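Hey everyone, long-time lurker, first post.

I ran two proteins through the pipeline my lab uses and got sequence/structure pairs for each. Pasting them in order. The first:
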Amino acid sequence: MTTPTRETLEKALKSDAKLQAAATQFANELAGGTYTIADLAEQLGFALTSADTEERVAGTNLLSAVLNALPGDVLNSKQLEFLTTFYTDRLRDHHNVMPAIIVGLNALVHMKQLPAESVPLLLQAFFQYTTCQSQTRGDRTKIFNMFKYLTVHYQPELVKMAGDFLFGLINSIDGERDPRNLDIIFSFMPEFISQYPLLHLAEEMFEIFACYFPIDFNPSKEDPEAITRDALAEKLTHCLVASEQFAEWTVSLAVEKLDSELVVAKLDSIELLHQAALKFSPAALEPYFAQIWQALKAETFPGSDNADVLRCALKALAELLKSAAKVPSISHNYQSNVLGVVLPHLSDVHHRLFHPATAIALMCVSGDAPYAADKILNTFLLKLQTIELSMKTSEERIKFYHIISQVYKLAALRDSLTKLDKAILLPLQDDVIAALRLCERDDFDAKQEDLELQTAALSVLCECVPVLSEAQRALVYKALVQLISHPYIDLDFKLLTVNLGALHPVELQSSFIDICIRNFDIFSEFIKRKIYSNLLPLLPQIAFTQRILDLVMKEVFTPTVTEPGRLLALEALSTLLNQEEQRFIVELQQQSNLLHQLIELARNTPALPLASLELIAAALSRIMQQLPLSEQSAIVSEYLPTLDLQEAAQLYVARGLLGYLHKDIALDDHFERLLDDLTKLSLSSDNEQLRTIAHHLLCSLVNKMDNTKENRSQVKRIIHQLKEAIKSGDQRAVHLLAWLAKGLVVAGFEEAAEIITDLTDLLEHPTLCTAAALAFDVIAAEFPELDLPVVKFLYKQKFFHTIMNKLGSKLSNYCEHHMKAFIYVLKATPHSVIRLNIKQLGPLLFKTLDAQSDGQFLCIALNICNNFVKQQDAYFQAHLGHIIPSCLELSKQKTQPNMQVRIAALQLLYDITKYPTYVLLPHKVDVTLALAAALDDPKRLVRNAAVKARNAWYLVGAPSGD
């Protein structure tokens, strides 16, 4: 095949569509080697050299489109050199040809074999013969993308161009206003500026960005991919700190704009200073720190009214001080300037500048902890020495202690705690310990004191453990023993004991733990609880593990320990098992056979209270969950056959063993007996707690059962037994049937449908209808404490559609108990499913709101409606005329005595105000007048909701409310 004929080329030039199609075809032929680019250019010469401008534009467009469609490795260096010469010459052509030339240049620079020496020639010609800002927005986008590519891939060549390229680039950018183009520029220029020498053009380079600061730009709401103001501002900031040569101008610009009244300008200026601290060296910023500090001080001391401005200003100051810490001389200069202003105000807690001074002082510590902490702590020490330590609560001392605690914490985070001046720390810590030891005095009345001072003292001691002297630690141990053995005081000092144990285990053991354990038997229940609470966090520390375990085990399993001592020990054991990892629990079980001991304790201890049995069951469950499947199976096989489930203690043991048993462990050998025993207990016991355990175990058992014919026949037998009991009016049988249905529904067993049908029929029963409605709540509701590991995919959706089909006409006729049952089902149905069926369900929800029935029922319906209203659902928008009067009626105390219903109705009215104004205006007057009654509601929470809703309605249609 030969090169395209003139006739073919002329046809291609007639329209853009034909031109693009031809360009793609020619590019494929060039890539296949059918002819060369020189051949094509020669054939196209009639158009490229035509005296007619439009024909030259079309010819250049075709050639550029071909280059754009070519793979990057097709053309060799000679061909590209020829094309570069052609395009650089064409830069002098008519301005109408320029868009086509720009496309061609963009394609050329992306070619892999473009000679490096061609790049300077191309750019010099471009800067000489064309002006970027005179091009259209789209063409400028192509130009900036070309610059972006060249700065990344041709750095050596651009550096050789020196000021020529910089000057041309600055001129090209200068005056750009389009945010999309600015986004491109701001994205690649920071890296370019940081890598290229700016020579004498540094200030000019800075100024082309400074003119945009701060960004004043509102993106189009109709553009889904609109560039945000914040994103553009962030990229601009990176440009302004891209070179240390910008330091002086950056600081000057930020300080100038920080004086603005606009919050956004202040925030951008502060962020610019923050980025300067991150990017510029301390030496570059030191000459301007006084200027920066004066500007930031105006926003932090006493502080801006805007919380965001204050927070960002403190963050910027902290970064400046942190950066300066790398150079001690500069850091000390900065710190002296700042601390010289704030330290005098740290001595008077009542002064209006105390809190701003505190915030700034803590920023100083976060920057250069050794220097700042010493100065700040010394200020507090001098002040504390002038305040008498007395039984009377000292507001000053408490506030000082809280700040001192934060200073210690920040110093520790900077690994500087041990570098602080001991001459300041020791007397300061003596004061704190003395405040803590006030509780040792005979005249200390724990009932009168609020213990705030002691709490503040403990917060300091928790942080300063590494720098406490031996003598101070001895006093602390003595104070801790006094606190833990005090009959009334219950202060939390767990963190202090953990920190002391980590650094001084032998001391803590002998001076605190041993004393607690040695006297444990004589302590009251209150003190024992405190000891457990403070010793258990020490368990992970190997030095104390066995000692604490021995105490807990002794108190749990020693026969002579009586209640409530054993109950406390079981609570401690439960806490221990919940806080430890699997490895620890497995090792504990292997070493002490804990599970066996707990089972024997439950079975052999007469009259063990239900609270203790509850804790034993929880401990057994926790242990079983951590054991391998083989051990779980062996334990069940060993103990389950011997359990009498009619006995409370043994029922709790069964709950512990089976409640969270792994679903892969088969219970087929025990399944029939478990079903019979648990059913018997559920139907015969008067103890609600025991029946609940039986219900949960049955639900979990049928959920995890193997899908065998034998197991399913056993379940059907129990269902039949319950039906017979229901015929005699037994409500317990209805309740148990619901729990069986729950396990079967979640697992997706077919037997669930039979139970659902029976429960649906019971909704018309004269005496069991209420129990039947509640049964649907049991089936639909979530129970976190219930283990149902076998979950059928989309079971909630299937259950919803089953109920919809079975209740049918009863719902449309609004039968009360049918509606209650259905609302319970809706509560657990995914929102997406309800939305798909909203046209059927909407009228039912509205009828429910009109019915003024019981509170729980109405709260569910209101919450479902609220989920739609929050999303501004179109269906609910069309029915606001029905919803609003119903909610107004429900918000009145006379109509609805349930407080939660009134609050939910008012919340729904508030969320309705998010709909478009034109929809709300017809209702505005009626709603604002009707809500006046709720403003006088006797319940504070209802009044709060009423004020919120009424204010929102009052503002409907206001200028800022749309």
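...and the second, right after it:
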Amino acid sequence: MKHLFVILFLFCGLSVFAQPKINDKPKSSVDFPLCAGGESCDIFVSPEDFEVVKKAASLFAEDIGRVTGTKGHVQVGNPGEGQNIVVIGTLNHNSFIDKLAGDNQIDVTGIQNGWEQYLIKTVENPVKGIKRALIIAGCDRRGTAYGTFALSEAIGVSPLYWWADVPVKKKNALYLQKTDYVSKAPSVKYRGFFINDEGWGITPWASKTFDKELGDIGPKTYAKVCELILRMKGNMLAPAMHPSSGSFNKYPENKLVADSFAIVMTSSHCEPLLFNNVTEWDEKTMGEWNYVTNKDGINKVLDKRISENAPYENFYTLAMRGIHDAGLVGVPKEREVSLIEEVLADQRNILSRYIPHPIDSIPQQFVPYKEVLDIYERGLKIPDDVTLVWVDDNYGYMKRLSNPQEQQRSGRAGVYYHTSYLGAPHDYLWVCTIPPVLIYEELKKAYDTGADRYWLLNVGDIKPAELAIKTFFDMAWDIDKYDIHSINEHQSAFMAKLFGEEYKPRFQRMLDEYYRLAWSRKPEFMGWEREWDEPEYTELASTDYSFQNYNDALRRLDDYQRLSDEALHLYHELPEASRPAFFELIGYQALASYQMNRKFLMAQLNRELLAEGKVEQANWAASQSQLAYDSIASLNHRYNTQLDGKWNYMMTLAPGWVAKYQHMPEVTYTKGKGEMPVDLSLRLEQDVLERCTLVDLTRYQVKSASGHTLRLVKGLGYDWNIIQLGEATEALADPTSPSAPQIEYALPQIDADSVTVHVYSLPVFPIYKGRGTRFGVSVDGHPVQVTNNIPKEYSKSWKDNVLQNGVKATFSFPIDPRRKSHTLTLSCGDPGVMIQRIIVDWGGLKETYVGPDIRLLKSK
């Protein structure tokens, strides 16, 4: 046991306790001065090393200058004499580092033959004439860069220093404590994001502000994108591909820029072998994009693309769909499976023609997205070495994951996940409202079923999704660092690191409220219209929030106003230099989300008051709606013009394509009648539950766990707590069995002979065929009633579910009114179901959007 403790201590010392620590004064004589006495260190890189290593060294030198005002000095070549030097290099590409390893002055066994690992170590008297050396060594080119940027973060330069304008705290000196740190391999091998639906943000910004000379997203923009990915410990990019921007390969320098940052290029689910058929396919000269009638024409352009891009590091998409995001063209359903198998074989032959490696060692992915999943489920055979990339339903819920047989595949699995989307039933391109706990829950169960090869995040225009991007990359780098509870504080901890630890509790409350309020209805969905739908659903309409019952609408307005007020208070409390970053990361989103809700709810109130004949009050509500509309425009202007217009054209509301929520809703203002303000404070008489009650999910008792994880989780749900009935990868249970995993809730006395129980769960999918979403409900020991929601994508019920982030199941039970109390039991069937609200009604429940708020129960 003593030896085991020593081994564990040494291992922890390498991976945890010895992480680089920076001080502005030396703590001991062996601390390494990165900058002292107005002089910054000399940084050496080998001429034989990779371009990204030289680039990372140069950026690190600039980072030292950002902190101290004095840049480090980068020198290409072997170090000579010196007091204190920094050597940055890759194993087998830096002779100085290789000699230290050969002389046992540094131990590289922890990273040798690894993947993207690095060590950071201070060495005393490494060679004659050098007093002390700080060694940053990587097992490969990205590992070296990650080690370098780890020090950049340690000295106080955020990965978002440029993209979110995070200020750098100034220091006169920088001392690194004696360090011997070895990183572990990343949890997910390939980690990146996809710039998508870029026509209303990053494209106009790049073409009109950042790179006006080119007038497009090009090498200058992609250099900043690649630096961001690398600093966040990502390694992969799927570039913009909409017709609003030029294709990535239109500009030959783009791939050179990506390679200089060691970024792996990939492409979206509909871009075979890095070919963007949206802008690169010319039907007039190339023929129809139809593999049945024009196979040779299609393969000709794919062959050319691989011949040009094969020298670089890529993760290739094997695919055949229609143009852009359309389904297959001109293929009978009975032919689809055999055709796609033919496509895969042909595309792999093209790869083999130009890449001098065995085909099973070339990174390839197949994405069963939309109609392609159906083709896959009908028996499509995918080569075992190809990575199966599973997709969410575009609203954050994974549709399918690897079953036990698929988990054995050598190509493993991956995920393609959305924090931004353009499509039915409604886009959400404006602000990012996917909560960290949902990201964790969905991606962790994917990881646990084999999705550790490839993670791709759809980030829209990158801004304003910076916090979600940070959460995603941190999880992909080290998923074991987090659990379903700690992940909820990930973003507040990150912001506290940027702006001050004293603000962390307030950041957490603010983020919790921001995500909670958007959970029941995203700001983009408040117009209550649907896109690409039947005509009766495509116009702006009143919401389902009620002004008459349970303070439903009023409480939402009140909560949003409090959130907005807190954002303003924090903004003004922060130092002036920090305000732009705070505004970009969360301030704008909080303020603008309030105004969007205010715009639509005040328009609804205008119509309701007018119907009651309260003309002056209706006029006031109309003016408030217009004021909210104008406030959003003002916030957009502020976002685009602060910092001398650095982000001009980045922030716009929405596509003017099919979306309508960005418009001013219809209101009636009766001229000559004046205005009378409406008291929007909560009505005490509405905060009463009569002949119904809510279940406080936090007050549960586990009756029987039966080997399953039954837990309360904060950070999801209408009341920001959910009960999870087992982890998704746990064994199936029979919810009707007395030995099923069960939890119980106490109910009050009920003066009726029956009750109706409404249970809202999250609209999750079964993880694979043979699983479901079953759970059971019982009251007072009556036979368990079981529900099983298996949503059919694009059905009306599925659309309702994703718009409200909830599925309602209703049960009825007889009740003995003589009993003083009652018991409600939830039983686990298919693990992974998450319950977010339970309402028990015996005749008094009033109409609202998704039921009364839990605060009505707690105010009694």
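Reply from user beta_strand_b:
Welcome! Quick read of the second one: The two ends are 55 Å apart (CA to CA). Residues 606 and 618 are 4 Å apart (CA to CA).
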